[in-house]
Write a structure and sequence with these properties.
4 helices
């Protein structure tokens, strides 16, 4: 059931991220250049594998360790999860950014922040699904 939960969270996160990017990067028809593709599905094509592979594996790894720690209250558990997932987004995007040949410092910063925000989206959708559908019994 845990694998199914991670797949559902990854797909939902990817869809929400893709729709958000499509909305933010929208180019009005009057400003579009001829011969340039403006399809928003491209965001989904790139984000879904990263979420499924990077996010799913990292999340499964983190969940094992966070569940093994006894927290005094749920807020501290949330803060720890928030921090760990944010750092995970930085790590995953940092690893993907290693394949870029000549990155500028500003590009590196933007990509790392984007990775952290995408990981936090995954984290929060995971929390929402756990609460809404009871995927896991929380203490």
């Amino acid at each position: 059931m845990k694998v199914l939960e991670k797949i559902i969270v990854a797909v939902l996160s990817s869809i929400i991220l893709s729709l958000s990017l499509a909305f933010l990067m929208y180019t009005p028809v009057a400003e579009q250049q001829p011969g340039v593709g403006y399809s928003s599905i491209i965001y989904l094509i790139y984000s879904l594998p990263v979420y499924l592979i990077g996010g799913g594996l990292y999340s499964a790894f983190v969940d094992v360790y966070i569940e093994s720690i006894q927290f005094r209250n749920k807020f501290i558990k949330y803060i720890v999860g928030f921090f760990v997932y944010g750092v995970g987004g930085l790590l995953i995007m940092g690893l993907l950014f290693l394949f870029d040949s000549n990155p500028s410092l500003l590009d590196i910063f933007k990509v790392l922040i984007f990775g952290a925000l995408a990981a936090l989206l995954f984290f929060h959708i995971s929390i929402i699904l756990k609460k809404a559908f009871g995927f896991l019994d929380e203490n």
